[in-house]
Amino acid sequence: MHCYGDLVSYLSCGMILTGLGHLVHHRKTQPSYGRHMGPSPLARMVPARVAWFLQEMPALLIPILLMLTSHKGSSMGKYLLLGTFCMHYFQRTFVYSLLTRGKPFPLAVMVAAGFFCCLNGFLQGHYLLHCAQFDDEWSADYRYKTGLLLFYIGMAVNIHSDYILRNLRKPGEVVYKIPTGGLFEYVSGANYLGEIVEWFGYAVATWSFPALSFALFSLCFIGPRAYYHHSFYREKFKDYPKLRKALIPFIF
Ligand SMILES: NC(=O)c1ccc[n+]([C@@H]2O[C@H](COP(=O)([O-])OP(=O)(O)OC[C@H]3O[C@@H](n4cnc5c(N)ncnc54)[C@H](OP(=O)(O)O)[C@@H]3O)[C@@H](O)[C@H]2O)c1
User: Fold this and answer.
1) Taking Cα atoms as reference points, which of 131, 108, 96 lies closest to residue 37?
2) Which atom of ligand 1 sits closest to the CA of residue 96?
3) Does 102 sit in the ligand 1 pocket, CB within 6 Å?
């Protein structure tokens, strides 16, 4: 397959614009799913495990299918795709989804998220396999090493923080408690901080516009959620730790 450069540029720009649009549109509330979702008797709901499994799966399957059907793709591109993007979505699809104790998820949000994962899976996979050109020294480049380090640190923080959140509830419980431990001692959105660091690390390691656009999208999408989660905790819990910030330790 040859590189569809124009399509890659359109999708990448579209992703940044969608992220900015979300930021502006949802600057006052975060109604889509989870704790900020208002009561909506007409909304069709799906169990959280089913929703996360189905919506995240395309971001794993599409790059793998692209890899299996491409015989020429760059080997560094394949290595990066498997070692970063696919690894993240394997965890999200087969571990996070199946263990979550979240409340039911709106069907419409699941469909939109699944559509996003299809486009993003195609964009990242196609770019790394067919468009990116890495020279032979790329694995020794400081951008590659720093980016991968950031990616793995971010992923570890994200997984550990999601683990802490999950264990705040007993099976079947739907209450909110104050998270403690790990980076939650510093920020209310520790899982989001990990995920944002992860995708900026991926952008540095691949030095690519599509990866940067996904990192910016993530910042615009989950950055505000961290802020609203933080406000929620401060309102709900009078004893909420005063020094804890929303997303960036000691700063914001
Ligand atoms: N890259 C992206 O653009 C993007 C976008 C969205 C999500 N994500 C990632 O997907 C994962 C989940 O995102 P999310 O928005 O669902 O995270 P979240 O709102 O922090 O919730 C994560 C899970 O923990 C539960 N939970 C959260 N705080 C809790 C508390 N104080 N007490 C008890 N349970 C609590 C939630 O239950 P409820 O559902 O019942 O609230 C949910 O099951 C995160 O790792 C996030 O980084 C990434």
Assistant:
1) 108
2) 11
3) yes
